[in-house]
Structures are given as structure tokens and as C-alpha cells.
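=== RUN LOG ===
request id: a7f3
mode: sequence -> structure
chains: 1
length: 278
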Amino acid sequence: MSKKRLGKGLQALIPEIEETPLSDAVDVELEDIIVNEGQPRKIFDEKKLAELTSSVAQHGVLQPLIVRPRGEKYELVAGERRLRAAKKAGLKKVPVVVKVLTDRETLEIALIENLQREDLNPLEEAEAYKKLLEEFNYTQEQLAKRVGKSRSAVANTLRLLSLHPDVRREIEKGRLTEGHARALLALPLEKQPDAARRAIELTLSVRETEKMAGQAAKKRKARKPKNNKDSYIEDLEERLRTACGTAVSIRLQSRGGGRIEIKFSSPEELERICEIIL
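=== RESULT ===
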């Protein structure tokens, strides 16, 4: 059986890993491998995992896992599906390649491995991008080059984190695609769950969802009452709504002051807004 090649992104991070044959890997007890809590992938397809378990039971683990030393044990860097399948298949040991890696390298490798295999759902991908940006001070441009995507693709994926929690759960379940989610971003946060349910119930395509969201946005704009705010204040409100992903209103007072009102519908949404502001 020919060896499955790793993608260029992973090979660029650890060039020698692709040249490591299975015979040169080290066998390690499964109980000595600790799963990395920072692993970007949280949801596993049980059907695909069952298929992999069947393969592992028959042929063993054909591609070594990547681990790094962690005290007297090893922390998993890449290969969690293979590790889970090995446990389900009843194996006691698995082949590994041991690397000394920093936290950033560990997250990068885990992220890129999953991206290459298209194993991450869009929200897992967005959370991983956010972690790289915030914890390791990447710019979006640097991150895009690192994972082999355009800056706009990275930015669009990150925008999914501003979706309503109910919509995010539908994406995690696979009932909505990333394209549907982007279409729903055109709506105010409080309108997104109903629109998402309608898209699911009517099995709307991405294009049909975009049309539905666009029509709803136009109706909302048409119903918007006139006020005494000048265009500058209205522009500020719109920019704040976009940034926070929720309803924002600027209330002016006669003496030149005023207040900003930001709406939230749950503790989770409040926490998300606070993270954006802080």
C-alpha cells in the first residue's frame, strides 16, 4: 500500500515528518498519550470513525501519530481520529513520531492537519483562527499565508463567530452550511434563529437563503422610523451593530452627551459582546 502523503502546509511546518516511514516510528502505549485540550476539532463523524476503526482493526495504524513530550507521557499533536479508532479497535500501542514543539507549533499543526483533511466544521475552523490571532498575535494576513488561504477567506470564516448561538448549533449539527450562515449574517442577531429555522424547514439553497435574508433586511429598513439623528450618528450605529453583531442604539441628550445601548439576549451573547469590546 502506498503511503498517504501529507499536505504541503503540514510538511512546511515539520519537513522531516513525511520522510519518516512507519518502521522508524516508535510504538507507545495508548494510556501514555494525553489528548491536547486545545485541539481545534471537537465534533467527530461517528460513521467515518466506525469505518476507520474497522480499517485499524484489520491493518493497524498505517500513519504514525505526531506527539510531543509531556512529563513522563506524550501529548497528542495530530492524529486524534487514529487514536480514537485505535482505542475502539482494542489496540494497546500505536506508532508515533515524537517532536519537541511549542504551543503555537502544536496548534498550527493540529489546525493544518484538520484543514487539509477537511475535518473541521466552519465554527471549529473559526475558533482555531481566533485562537491563533489572539494567543499568538498573528495578523489575518500572516494567518492566511500560514494556513494557505486568502485573507478574505479567513476574515469571512471569523465572521461566523458573531452568529446567534442557535444558528451556530445548527451549523455544528450539519443542518446549515457555511454559505447559509454567511447569508444569515445580513440579518440582526435576534432575527437569525427564525430565518435559520425557515431555511432548514424549507430546505433552501444558499442562494435562496441569501434572497430571503436580503428581503427581510429591506423590509426592516423600510419600517425603520424616522428620527432626528444625523447621518454621522446613524453611520456610527450601523458600524457598532456590525462589530457587535446585535442591535445598538445611540441616544443623544440635549447637553451634548448621551448613552450607547447594546442589546443582548443571553449570558453567552453578553460574554461574546464583552470580548469584542475588551
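=== NOTES ===
DSSP finds 13 helices and seven strands in the chain.
The beta strands are 26-29, 33-34, 65-70, 73-78, 93-98, 248-252, 258-262.
=== END ===
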